[in-house]
Each structure stands twice: as C-alpha cells, then as structure tokens.
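Supplementary material to the annual report.
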Amino acid sequence: MAKTLFDKIWEQHVVDQVEGGTEILYIDRHFIHEVTSPQAFDGLRRRGIGVARPGQTVATADHNVPTKHQDQPIREKLSRFQVDTLTQNCADFGLELYGLGHPYQGIVHVIGPELGITRPGMTIVCGDSHTSTHGAFGCIAFGIGTSQVEQVLATQCLLQVKPKRMRITIDGELREGVVSKDIILYIIAQLSASGGTGYFVEYAGSAIRSLSMEARMTICNMSIEMGARGGLIAPDKTTFEYVRGREFAPQGAAFAEAVAYWETLYTDEDAVFDQEYTYRAEDIPPMVTYGTNPGMGIGVHQTIPNPDDSSASFEKSLQYMGFTAGESLEGKPVDYVFIGSCTNSRMEDLRQVAAYVEGRRKADNVKVMVVPGSRQVREQAIAEGLDIIFREAGFDFREAGCSACLGMNEDKVPKGAYCVSTSNRNFEGRQGPGARTILASPLTAAATAIAGHIVDVRTVLQAQPA
Amino acid sequence: MEKFTTLVSRAVPLAIEDIDTDQIIPARFLKATTREGFGDNLFRDWRYLPGDVPNPDFVLNDATYTGAILVAGKNFGMGSSREHAAWALYDYGFRVVISSFFADIFRGNSLNNGLLPLQVDDDFLRKLLHAIQANPELELTVDLEAQTLTVPAMNTEVSFEIDPYKKTCLLNGFDDIDYLLSKADTIKKYEEQRPIAVR
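Predicted assembly:
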C-alpha cells in the first residue's frame, strides 16, 4: 500500500498498540533545556528511577540565558537557579550537557542539526513546541509537555495517538526579496493559527525542494504556528550533504549505509493525505504580521483586512497593536528590530542580513539586536567578518540564546514599542509585557532596520544597482 | 495525578478566541523548578494592570463569576508547549476547560495533569457563554464516565469525546509513565531491531 513519508517513519517507531488508537512511540533523540525539564527530573526522583537511555538525550541552556557576558555568572537569581538546576540534573542522571560556556551551546533547535544529532528518519522530541524545526531533515519531530519529558527520560517512549496527514505543496520559483520565512508566514495566513491542528504536515513541491537546509528549517519551525504538531520535508541530496561530516553524523561506510536508508524516506506516488493544499511560489510576497497571532499576516504591500464579521478578538488584537483595519504597515516607524530565535538565527540568516546592511547604517530611531542561534554560529560569523559589518551598521551583535523571542531573559521589548522580529510568535506580551511584535523575514528586518520604518524589500532591491 | 470522575460547578466565562499559552502564563513566570504556585500568575498580563493592580475588567477579578470550570473562546491553548499553562489553570482551581477547539499540545498536557479539556461545538459554546453571562450562578455538571456535560438551567445535555485511554487514566488517576514502565521488556525488544541509521 502506498504510504506517506510520515506514515513510513511513524510505523517504523511503533513499539506496541495500547487501546483506542493510542500507540507506544519510540523516541530516537530527546533534547532538553532548563525551563521545561526540572519538574521531569523531580518526577524521576520521586519514583526512584533513572534515565532509561542517557545516550539519547542531549541538554543545553538557551531560554533563560543572557546574551551578553556569558562568561560571567547569570545575574538574575531565578534564571541562574534554573540553569544551575539543569547542570545538577544532567550530572545526577548522566546526561550530556552543552551548557553556558560550552562551545556547542545554543538554541536547542539550532545545535541539534548543526552537530549532526538530527538526522533523517528519526523521531525527535523536546519540551519546546518549535521542535518541529528538525522535521526539515525528514524526521517526525514535535514539542511535548514536561510530563512527557519525564516519560521519555523514564522509558525512551511516548504514548501517542497518530495525527492526521496534511500535504502543502509549493511549486514554482520565489520572487526576488521573498525567502523561506515569507513562505511559512504566507501559508499560516492562508490556513490560520489553528488550521493545522490535529495534523502533521509534509511540505513538498519544487519551491521547497530548491531550498537550503537552513531555509527548510525555518519553514518546519513554524508548523506549530498553524497548530500542526510538526512539519517535515523528504530528505534529499541537499539533506545528505548538510549532514555529511558533522560532529555526530555517521562517518565513512556508516554514512553511505545511512544514506541508503534515508533514500527510502519519501511519500509514495499514490499515497493519500487527509488534507492537501497547493500554492504557487510566485504568489508569495514578503510578509508581515499585523495582529497578535501568526495567522494574522499580510503581504507587506497589502492593507490590514477589514472583515464584515470582525470579531471582538480581532478588534482586541488590533487595539493591542495600535493598528486600524484597512491601513498599511509599509512606512510605519518601528523602535526595535530583532534578528534571532530558532526560526532565523543561523548562518544563512546572518549572511543575508550582513549582505544587505554592509556599508549602511541603521536608522537612529531603531535599536537592532542580532542574536546568533549558537556559539558555533557566532564563531563562524566572526570568522567571516560579519560582526564588523553589524557593528558598523550600529547593530548589537550578541551571544547565543533565545533572547528577545520570548521575554524570559534580559532581552525584552518595552511596553508599547514596535519590534520587527524574525522570531515566530507575535502573541501579546511575547517579547515583554505590552511589546508589539511584527513578524517578518531576516531580509525585511534588515531593510526595516536601515530605513527605520517597515519596508517592502522588493522596492529597495529594485532600486539597488545590480 | 488526582482522579477525575464528576464535577458540579459554576463556570467562569472568558469569551476570547485563540488564547495562547503565553497569555495563560507569560514566559517570565516559568522560572520555578516545581509544579506548584503557577496559579498566582495565571493570565497575569490580563489580570493585573501595571503596578500589580487587579484589572477590574478581567473576569477572574469579577466576584460575580466563580467555579472550577473555565469556558473559553475557540482554539484555546495554542502556541508554546509549556505544561506550566495546565499547571497554572489547575493550581488556580480549574478542573475543566470548555472550548470549541483546543490546541494539541495543550490538550495533551491538560490530560496528563487531571485537567479536563472538554470540547463542544461553536454554536453550543456561544449559547453557553451567553447563558453564564445572563446567569452567573448557572451550574454545570460534567460526568466523565458518561462523557456528558449537563446544564439543567439550559435544559441541555451534550456529550463530548475523549480518547478512551486518557479517559481510563483520568477516572483512575493513572499516568502514562506507570503504564510505560510496565512495558519495559516490549520496549527493549523493539530496540534490538532499530535501523542503524537512526541509532
């Protein structure tokens, strides 16, 4: 019988059936961080049990960490305690930790792929909804709660009901100035912030195939923003070449053997999905969000919708943002630009931003933070001289962490301030109490930082000499 | 986990759609390393004005409404996987959340903590919200065994869906780990045939 990629990987990982459709799913890799793991370790202690497969869990500190002076103790007491608790738990239970100061430290969804821990065909979980990022490699990767973190630590398995299957196909070629972040913001704007709930999404089509691994990660990362548990892309040569030679990837003959297995991971021609959507790459503009969930997105040249049946929730959202229906965001001044997060903090993102801002300077009204996703990304950026470009542009190039994506560490956006952000969530208060987030691509963020107001990047790219 | 069998309670109406887990519990309050105490910061930024003054316009600060059932707009619990959202609702005293749609991870987290996500249709949700607003003393009965929600004042009984395995867990106060630990031999056997490529 014809099978989808998702079915193939899922079935390979079913250990046993329970009742009413629940299955025991085996987990190949488990990532943990300081925020959603402490209560899970407490649970193990209460039960008097250890970690079942310590070699399959990797820890890092990312959410709570400051992105300046990481060589010094964390100043904020509760954050320091939480990070110290992770260190203690990893020591007590024998887990590998890439903590603050370690050369591999970084955002959990950045370091997994860059170290070759994330590989095709795996099941990967983490107590973080953006675990969907790893699906870019052709994995079943999804976020879990802390009780489930405890389950995986205790048994290397999860009890799951198989989600439904959705395929989103994007064929064609992207227009100039449009990047993978725009693709996913466009999809979410079409399907809404709940349109994917109950589904696991496969992204397919020529526009997806032509993307680099890092661009694919940006797309899979935001699958959760339409409610989907995860998203995945069939592995191909681009995937294999990315994995080849990485720290924990199989080497030599083992790599060749792995590739032979990975090449079996695709959706059969006649496989049936529960839901299918198809879009044309040419129709996708540079996107921005205007509201307080990621489904509230428009092309940067478009105006905020003015629905006839506008709900109280819609109006509440516009009121929070200080926008009115029917207005355009293009030309709106902003106070902050944040380039970072597990969505857009990898080398390609930083290179794209640097290429645009080289030789330019940010507008005076904007504060700009550039936060690399990992120590390794930061080191590479410095090796390429990007730190100098950022400094000369007036950007604040910081150390690795989740930073201003979630208003949990020192990096926050003040009440009422507008921030064009390459992160993934524009929820009320996400970047700090009262902060107003406008999600966009790294390219749009870079152009906005230079102009001081929201820019349709296509207009400035056209105006540039080739 | 505490057992859940039946609940008779008044309800608190929160007629906002797409409530995300950042609203239920903002990230800056996720720094605790235990499960307790998150109720104090439930809906923090809606519940309090600057200076920690209770916002009189927010329903949790309105003494008219009380009870262990929260009735919320559709697509409740989207966004972050933080289980702290379920802990905060439970710690505050809620045992049931009624909505017309729940985000997947939130639903799972709730069920793992004895908090019942009870899904009804859009039309009934609208009527229920109106009925509670018209009569804050309205009582609701949730019977998990029978999978019914009864509202005598509305002369209505609706049934709801729940995964049979999770239903058994809730009724008995079992959690998934007890079950999985009992399957250690089956898991070990599975591991012997894992493809090398994913090891």
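Residues 166 and 181 of chain A are 20 Å apart (CA to CA).
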